[in-house]
Amino acid sequence: MSNTEDKKAPEAAAVDGAPKSELEIALEDAAKWKNDFLYLKAEFENFKRNSIKERSDLLKFGAERIARDILEVMDNFERALDVKLTSETMQTFKVGVEMTAKELKETLAKHGIQEVPSEGQAFNPLQHEAISSELTNAVPNGHIARVFKKPYKLHDKIIRTGQVVVATSAIPQGEA
């Protein structure tokens, strides 16, 4: 037998049902693992691409639910502005605007946005911005006497600090 006949003999034997050599088994395993790897790599690339798109869509359209709900409230405000005000309709107009403002607060609360109660409360620099102070005995020293802008939170996070006037104790005349 020549060398070329010896090399062809194991291949022929493997096709004919004879046992495969260790090299052939290893090559088949390597091909299988390579295919599995390429499949997983393609799946991961698709996952990354879809995750990036989902994140982008969430940033772009994440406010859609709250926007739709607020637009309903906006429609009520616009209907109120279309009313011709007379002395007879003034009270009804006021009640309508109050109801619409209540509806807006409920809509915001439905989406986790709530007002942080402030007037008469202790000043908290994490929730409030002091725009001035006022001598008063109406509330204790260091508490909020007046609120210009109410603070709001989204769930547990302050999303807008309130602008407030902080009380300072009025000094009695004889103690100065």
Please give a structural write-up.
This protein is of the alpha+beta class and 176 residues long. Among the domains are: 57 residues; 64 residues, Nucleotide Exchange Factor Grpe, Chain A, domain 2 (Roll). The protein is built from four helices and six strands. The strands form two sheets. A three-stranded antiparallel beta sheet has the order 1-4-5. Strand 4 and strand 5 form a beta hairpin.
Main features:
Nucleotide Exchange Factor Grpe, Chain A, domain 2, about 180 residues, 3-stranded antiparallel β-sheet, alpha+beta, disordered N terminus
Secondary-structure blueprint:
Layout: H1 3-15, H2 22-61, H3 64-82, H4 90-110, E1 113-115, E2 128-135, E3 144-149, E4 152-154, E5 157-160, E6 162-168
Parallel strand pairs: 2-6
Antiparallel strand pairs: 1-4, 3-6, 4-5
Helix pairs in contact: 3-4
What's the CATH superfamily of the domain at 113-176, by name? Head domain of nucleotide exchange factor GrpE
What is the global morphology? elongated
Q: How do the strands of the widest beta sheet line up side by side?
A: 1-4-5
Cα-to-Cα separation, first versus last residue: 123 Å
Give the helix proportion (percent range).
40-55%
